[in-house]
Amino acid sequence: ADTRREVSIDEAYLDATDRTSWAVAGGGGGSPSDGGDGDDGDDSTDPPPSGAAGPAEARTLAEGYARHVKDRIEREAGVPASVGVAPNMSAAKVASDADKPDGLVVVPPGSVAEFLAPLPTADIHGVGPVTEGTLAELGIETAGDLAAADRDRLAAELGERGPELSRRAAGDDDREVTPTGLPKSLSRESALPTTADEPTKRETVSALAADVARRARERGCLYRTIGIKAVEPPFDVNTRARSLPGPVDDPDLVEEVALDLLGEFDETRVRKLGVRVSKLDFAETDQATLGGFEPGDGPGDGSDGAADRPRGSVGRTAGTDGDGGKLTDWVDGEPTADGDATGNEAERRTGDGQASLGDWS
Q1: CA atoms within 13 A on the CB side of 325
Q2: 176 is an active site residue
Q3: What count of other Cβ atoms lies within 10 Å of the Cβ of residue 18?
Q4: Residue predicted with more confidence, 208 or 19
Q5: Over residues 281-308, mean pLDDT
Q6: Dihedral (C-alpha) 10, 16, 21, 27: value to the nearest 10 degrees?
Q7: Residue environment code for 78-88, b if the CB has 16+ CB neighbours within 10 A, otherwise e
Q8: Residue 101, class by beta-carbon neighbours within 10 Å (0-12 exposed, 13-18 middle, 19+ buried)?
Q9: pTM for the predicted model, two decimal places
Q10: Pairing mode, if any, of strands 185-195 and 327-329?
Q11: Minimum mean pLDDT among 92-101, 227-236, 293-302: which range?
């Protein structure tokens, strides 16, 4: 089924990857990933031209599906709708804004960067008035300028979000459409004085792992992937993750996997560390047993059976930040002294309802 994320009363994202494709209408080839060339083996028949605005030349199945959605909105709600079709969220958002109030803009794979390049930086998702001004001071006026900008310089001026904005301007956005109200991951990070001290790093990651696992249990969700984030000075971000054979609720396993992944950075100087669990499962699902893990991927025979405990069972662990560094919660806000998150999540959301660039995505 399609995945839908409602952003507001009159805006939503729809992931139709499983419903349609970029194949040319009338039998052309192609796939959602490669865009296809529409060649069905009959060189004597030209592909039907696109009837949408944007860079698309041939009419694709994705365009037909989008037109069906657009017509249905007008038929059932009685209002026109502008629809943008693209391989990723940020490009689809820009496309939907390009021909309001009643347009259809299609941006096939391979043409996203060219479509975005002449647009002002303010059109790129995540660029607000302040960031737009900072970019202008750097001589960056268009999305093409931003895509080609030196990302180390952007990191120095804007922090970690600078390179991410550059990637989006280049057409690179791997965020998934997630249903409203259900996070796709839970994560915590701790800023600390730049250090290569192994005990300090391990203590910090252990505390973060315990807090993330506690919050996952309190929310009643299982997770299939455990990952870490290590930021080297000034803003070099490294992420590592390990997928599990099935969904689990196992705080000990989160800590063990996180520390194992941290081993790659034993001698590395870091200024920030983070732990994340992702591919969350909020449904009533049987947990994977520890027997499903490969040697070295889990607690093995020494497990205390944590993976067999039902979700929501007692096991609260107080969250700390290890060495006293600032602890940031990407999902629920700044933590209080006892590790619980507070704050207004909506204030840290961007205009499209997705997690902000401060989130680990």
Answers
A1: 24
A2: no
A3: 10
A4: 208
A5: 43
A6: -80
A7: eeebbbbbbbb
A8: exposed
A9: 0.51
A10: antiparallel
A11: 293-302
Identify the structural domains of the chain with CATH numbers, from first to last.
Answer: 3-114 (3.30.70), 117-169 (1.10.150.20), 185-348 (3.30.1490.100)
Range list of β-strands (E), the chain: 3-8, 11-15, 83-85, 104-106, 185-195, 223-232, 236-248, 270-278, 327-329
Annotated catalytic residue within 11, 157, 198, 232: 11
pLDDT score for 120 = 97
Measure the CA–CA gap between 159 and 141, rounded to whole angstroms: 19
**For residue 68, what is the enclosing H or E element?**
helix 61-77
| pLDDT score of 261 more than 80 | yes
Torsions phi, psi of 307, nearest 5? -70, -15
**Pairing status of strand 104-106 against strand 83-85:** parallel
Low-confidence winner among 23-37, 45-59, 146-160 (lowest mean pLDDT):
23-37
Of 273, 113, 116, 248, nearest in space to 191 by CA: 273
pLDDT digits (tens, 9 = 90+) for 318-334: 222 333 333 333 333 33
